[in-house]
Design brief:
The chain has 227 residues and is of the alpha/beta class. It has helices spanning 4-10, 15-35, 55-78, 94-107, 123-137, 148-151, 200-212, 221-226, and strands spanning 40-47, 81-86, 113-121, 165-168, 187-190. It has a single domain, classed as Decaprenyl diphosphate synthase-like (Undecaprenyl pyrophosphate synthetase). Bound molecules: farnesyl diphosphate (FPP).
């Protein structure tokens, strides 16, 4: 969800005003995804590297997360959204962690859309964390190579399929340490639209672009026709 700062700057507003508008967009896009039958939506809200931002911005972002959880969980629950928050959550303060746990517990049986929010998340962290946890559970397997299938359940989102479509707003064309393992075969879509302007129409453009792609997973086009 890139471009909040620039959206605010263009309007001579502080960067945090862009993040606040970004939260509004999260609500709209969650609802648009439900209407379109999307079953899994994963948002990169705060990367492990975002702690490097000015202290004031980081603390306002934390306040926004708290407010969003306080205000939105009831609506999510009503809409059949199952909320999951993944990342190294230990660095967040107790109030935020408590709200996350409550929100997850309240919505855990919901099936319409699984909304995963990645917070203090990094793709490399996810992979290393999985390897370390696998080793903890397999202390005697010091010389056995780890297989993909053995590692996958230890990643932070074993409950979700790998993403079909990755969307990055705000004009950058990078993955920036998002779901490095899980994005191996995802279609990548980059748009100059800033996140606070990313509405249902912009989402439809991304989905239309995805529909035109041919996903071969290493096979040839001819093989796909035979299947
Ligand atoms: C990147 O834009 C955005 C962030 C670091 C924060 C994203 C957070 C939200 C949209 C709000 C909360 C989300 C949830 C799920 C409650 P940027 O600040 O890097 O923008 P810039 O590239 O224009 O500077």
């Amino acid at each position: 969800m890139d471009g909040n700062g620039r959206w605010a700057k263009k309007r001579f507003m502080p960067r945090v005003a862009g993040h606040a508008q970004g939260v509004e967009r999260v609500r709209d896009i969650v609802e648009a995804c439900i209407q379109r039958g999307v079953e899994y939506l994963t948002l990169f809200a705060f990367s492990s590297e975002n702690w490097r931002r000015p202290e004031e911005e980081v603390s306002r972002l934390m306040e926004l997360f708290v407010m969003a959880l306080e205000r939105e969980v009831t609506r999510m629950h009503r809409n059949g959204v199952c909320l999951r928050v993944v990342g190294d959550l230990g660095r967040f303060d107790a109030r935020l962690r408590e709200l996350i746990a409550q929100g997850e517990a309240r919505t855990k049986e919901n099936k319409r859309l699984t909304l995963t929010v990645c917070a203090n998340y990094g793709g490399r962290w996810d992979i290393l964390n999985a390897v370390n946890n696998w080793r903890r559970d397999n202390p005697d397997a010091t010389t056995v190579p780890i297989s993909e299938d053995a590692l996958a359940p230890y990643l932070t989102m074993p409950y979700a399929p790998e993403p079909d479509l990755f969307i990055r707003t705000g004009g950058e064309q990078r993955i920036s340490n998002f779901l490095l393992w899980q994005l191996a075969y995802s279609e990548l879509y980059f748009t100059d639209t800033l996140w606070p302007d990313f509405d249902a129409e912009a989402l439809d453009l991304a989905i239309a672009s995805y529909r035109k792609r041919e996903r071969r997973f290493g096979r040839t086009s001819e093989q796909l026709l035979e299947r």
